[in-house]
Automatic annotation (TrEMBL):
UniProt-recorded name of the protein: Epoxyqueuosine reductase
Annotated InterPro entries: 4Fe4S_Fe-S-bd, 4Fe4S_Fe_S_CS, QueG, QueG_DUF1730
UniProt keyword annotations, A-Z: 4Fe-4S, Cobalamin, Cobalt, Cytoplasm, Iron, Iron-sulfur, Metal-binding, Oxidoreductase, Queuosine biosynthesis, tRNA processing
Subunit structure: Monomer.
């Protein structure tokens, strides 16, 4: 009603407004903005089947809220359109990211988490966009969402023409790859919707073949219980022992499937200073990070998405990575220093890591006179 009254008095059509919204979004730092309807019956069926298989693991929040996740109008009554936006976050050349994977002693953190927590930044920009629209149309109903409510962000973004969902279940844009964040603005404005892009994965299965744990069980089907991102971030308890050697040096998330996707040759480096690496986490040594006590962890991860896993999971993940690291006295000493940690969870992972180190030394015929650390011990920047 408000929108139609505004149109009558100011001559603003839905198409004109939609075009202006996209322009304003670019001015606010988004790389693309599209508009989707609220029809998600296909993704709703997929989600129901995925949950029935138990592939969400301990992510109980995926099963909460009934149909609100797949029906925007039930989450925010009155919603008839979703303005979807993407913001690129790739902080470094892909060659540098590839070099950091499987490094003998360096920690690997998923590149989306190296900088400032994206939730706050994107939500603030979406709010600015809503206020800019409101200045043009007058009051209307809106709500910005960035992983903060039950939202099927990738199906919505696909419907808004921001890309297609690839076989690894990430969104891919043909001229931007997949290294970007997504955010949504639920609105009650009758805007014209964009057309979805067709899939261009073809016969490629590079993401499925590279996945260290085989989490992409079929094209477009991910068993989160096997995914390294789930194991290092969402899982609260012990990482299953058979999967630990497959994690390599990944202590927070995993980017392997994106690194091999041929469409990411078109990915562009971020222009957002807040997404660039903080605290030297892009090159930090596992041994240095393992030495952080809880106060240091909280200080170093202030304003970062990493903080949400807490110090205990942080140590758990690094213990596993140290168990997978090249054997050395320095690694062994770092693990032994945590051998009597008050947490049963930490002690168990440390003892596993020490056993792994011992086994690798025996298999490789290593001796204690090998270099203590094949890479410089670099303390992350304050």
């Amino acid at each position: 009603m408000i929108f139609h009254l505004f149109k009558e008095h100011h001559g603003l059509t839905p198409t004109t407004l939609a075009n202006r919204i996209k322009t304003w979004g670019l001015e606010l730092g988004f790389q693309q903005v599209g508009i989707a309807g609220c029809e998600l019956s296909g993704p709703e069926t997929y989600l129901r089947d995925w949950l029935a298989r138990g592939w969400h693991g301990e992510m109980d929040y995926m099963a909460r809220h009934g149909r609100k996740r797949s029906r925007p109008g039930e989450l925010l009554p009155g919603t008839i359109r979703v303005i979807c936006a993407r913001m690129d976050y790739l902080p470094e050349a892909l060659e540098d990211t590839k070099a950091a994977c499987d490094h003998p002693i360096q920690a690997f953190i998923s590149r989306y988490a190296l900088g400032r927590d994206y939730h706050k930044l994107l939500r603030a920009r979406l709010k600015q966009l809503a206020l800019r629209i409101e200045a043009e149309t007058g009051p209307f109903q809106w709500r910005p969402l960035v992983d903060s409510a039950p939202v099927m962000e990738k199906p919505l973004a696909q419907a808004a023409g921001l890309g297609w969902i690839g076989k690894h279940t990430n969104l891919i844009h043909p001229r931007a790859g997949s290294w970007f964040f997504l955010g949504e603005l639920y609105v009650d404005l009758p805007l014209p919707v964009n057309q979805p892009l067709p899939s261009h994965c073809g016969r490629c299965q590079a993401c499925m073949e590279i996945c260290p744990t085989g989490a992409i069980v079929k094209p477009y089907e991910l068993d989160a219980r096997l995914c390294i991102s789930y194991l290092t971030i969402e899982l609260a308890g012990a990482i299953p022992a058979p999967l630990r050697p497959l994690l390599g040096n990944r202590i927070y998330g995993c980017d392997d499937c994106q690194l091999v996707c041929p469409w990411n040759r078109f990915a562009r480096l971020t222009t957002e200073a807040d997404f660039r690496p903080r605290q030297g986490l892009d090159t930090a040594s596992l041994i240095v990070l393992f030495g952080w006590d809880e106060a240091e962890f909280l200080k170093r991860t202030e304003g970062s998405a990493i903080r949400r896993i807490g110090h205990q999971r942080w140590l758990r993940n690094i213990a596993v990575a140290l168990g997978n690291a090249a054997p050395s006295p320095a690694v062994r000493q770092a693990l032994q220093a945590r051998g009597d940690h008050p947490s049963d969870l930490i002690r168990e992972h440390v003892h596993w890591a020490l056993a792994q180190q011992q086994q690798r030394r025996e298999n490789e015929g290593a001796h204690d006179n090998i270099p203590a650390d094949p890479s410089p011990q670099r303390e992350p920047r304050p």
